[in-house]
Description:
Elements: E1 13-18, E2 21-26, H1 29-37, H2 43-46, E3 53-55, E4 60-61, H3 64-71, H4 76-86, E5 88-90, H5 93-114, E6 115-116, H6 126-136, H7 146-157, E7 164-165, E8 167-174, H8 176-189, E9 191-197, E10 203-210, H9 214-225, E11 230-234
Antiparallel strand pairs: 1-2, 1-5, 3-4, 6-7, 8-10, 8-11, 9-10
Helix pairs in contact: 5-7, 8-9
Amino acid sequence: MESIKSEKIKFNIARLKKAGQIFEINVDPDLAVKFKKGELTNLREVLKAEQIFSDTKKGEMASETQLQETFKTTDPLQIAEIIIKQGEIQLTSEFRSEEREKKKKQILDIINKNAINPTTKLPHPLQRLELAFDEAKVQINEHQSAEEQVDHILDQLRPILPIKFEQSTLKLTIPATHAAKSYSLVQRYSKILKESWNPDGSWTATIELPAGLKPDFLDKLNSQTHGGITVEEKES
Length: 236
């Protein structure tokens, strides 16, 4: 007789509590995070189903009366956008574990390519870095980008390994039309040493970042600003 195994279904959901009610949608977690950050505009790509639930795990749908009273509409796309932007994206433990492992590999790759032993002037082997991660009990944050976590993790590794990043110092001027939007990208990749808002609305900042991250950073910044930035290399 063939045995039947029950499989527990897990969902990555976006949840919003509003007017004393819970509203949930089933989402693709990566795309939901991008949509929340404004990096993606096609909401249909984000949703696993165009349905609004009161309890996703139980399959209980929110009533049209509840939706109309709370959101002044029953359109699932309009409501889903509100839920993602105002609510919380809840991830399964399995997804969070996969994200942490992915971020760990990205961080190790960045350090391996950009860091050196200041005594020997040679890079640390990847296996040695992995052992140092374990020894330092490094905790990876699945919600932050790899670039955002590098400096903090280097601080944890330094008591174990002699390690140094070659740094680049840049002076950026970003036009007013792109300044506010680009700020988070600059902050994610670099340490802002000095900044000022100019009379024309443009933003000037002197930043420091690992030299190995500079090409990728400038590619992203140029793409975001359509090549409208001015970059000046400064002595570190």
